[in-house]
Amino acid sequence: MLVLRVLRAGPLHGYAIAQKIHVLSNEVLEVEEGSLYPALQKILLKGWVSAEWGISETNRKVRFYKLTTAGRKQLEAELRDYDRVTEAIKAILRTA
Predict the structure, then answer these.
(1) Which part of the chain is the Transcription regulator PadR N-terminal domain (predicted)?
(2) What is the pLDDT of residue 96?
């Protein structure tokens, strides 16, 4: 969900995705390469992102990932599920 949400703003390469998640989470969340790239491959195969090779700001050949229409729909579904689960947890914490 976080990868899809970060890509909603526009195409990014893997390292930039990890950095953006880290920065936007006030440096609380760190996405390790060992989990990021398999996740990117999985969502690429599901058609939620597309990818193309390009050159990074440091002049390296990198793969840029872009959210697809299917990815936008998936993100919206995941955000709805997240909100539903978050509200359920809050209800338990308030009443238990």
Answers:
(1) 3-76
(2) 78
- Cα 94 to chain centroid, rounded: 30
Domains assigned to the chain? 2-95 (1.10.10.10)
- Cα(33)–Cα(18) distance, integer angstroms: 8
- b/e per residue, 59-71, with b = 16+ CB within 10 A? eeebebbebbeeb
Given a cut of 90, is residue 1 above it in pLDDT? Answer: yes
- How far is Cα 70 from Cα 61, in angstroms, rounded to an integer? 26
Percent of the chain with pLDDT over 90: 97
Q: Which amino acid is at 45?
A: L
Residue type present at position 53: W
